[in-house]
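Let's study today's protein:

:::
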Amino acid sequence: MHRDFSKAVMMTEEGKVIESRNVWHDTREEMAELFGEFDPGTEVVMEASFNWPWIADLAEKAGLKPHLGHAMRCRELAKGMSKNDRKDATFLARLWLAGDIFPEAYLAPREVRARRSRFRTRALLVKIRTEVKNSIHGILHKNGIRNDEVTDLYGKKGRKWLKGLELSPEAREEMEAKLAVVDDVDKHITRLEEKLWAELPTDPRASLLQTIPGVGRLIADGFLAEIGEIGRFPDRRALASYAGVLPMDNRSAGEEHGKRTNPRCAKFLKLMAIEAVRGSVRTSGRMRSLFERVRAKNPDKPGKAVVAVARELMEVVHIVLSRGVPYEEAPVRPGSKEGVVTGHSEDRRTRGPRRASQVGRSAGPEKIQAAK
């Protein structure tokens, strides 16, 4: 499937090619006519490229059964083969006919895609706002200005402090332009969130997710939109990997080159997981303990602590959704090896509690039974 046309190959169950043709995307009628030539229940296999949704919707409307092939894994399987549109389509069909080796991707239903669209727009705007705010902090650093007076540069007190700074005309012009961008993006985010609040469906799974520290209503529904069906993830590590917050080994010739996360991930799910970290660290003793331990071990890499908590959140999300039970933060017994956390770093006498997904990650067995 390309931007302007698709190459369609018709094949029997035995793998014999009957016909191939180009289907142009000038209008949807040509694609609809193609699908109308086949009996209901006919399998339609396509690569999960950027424009699959409308084609899959037309196939479903015609009573056919669309399937998505994982683009990257299909390319890996076809490595070394000669390539053109007809051969690519034929190879994809034969992969499907081969059975279990077909790398099928998740075909999100239309309602899931609609929810994703809303939350991805909000996540994108939040990311833009964060980048602009970080660049404003960069202006202060470049001019040797420390901020020890206000905690929020973008509130009333912070804006007054920024306005009173002595800056060069160039720096002042740059700051005012970026502050205007922050204000404009803020308005769009506020309007979008108001619309989301009005349109958010009532989903009992969202209520379960909101028991997790740092996960509010918007993030909970965003998680559900991006994850879709939790059953497609065999375990909590799979979900963390899908979200791009699971560190992977990076070794060669017996040497460790430092773990890294997978850049080929659900980037909007990762953005929301990162967004939830701040609230979880503020409200959960176990999340805060994990954050501080990782940050103490990696003082020159503060992002590692954020990723560690984001991974923890994704693992807890998997447990809560797959078991259908709320999250509970198990208390730490006095004198136990997990230690005590009083809320102040100077009072921490031991290494602190273990990870939340290992201890106190969800309701106990008796509550699971009751939920069933």
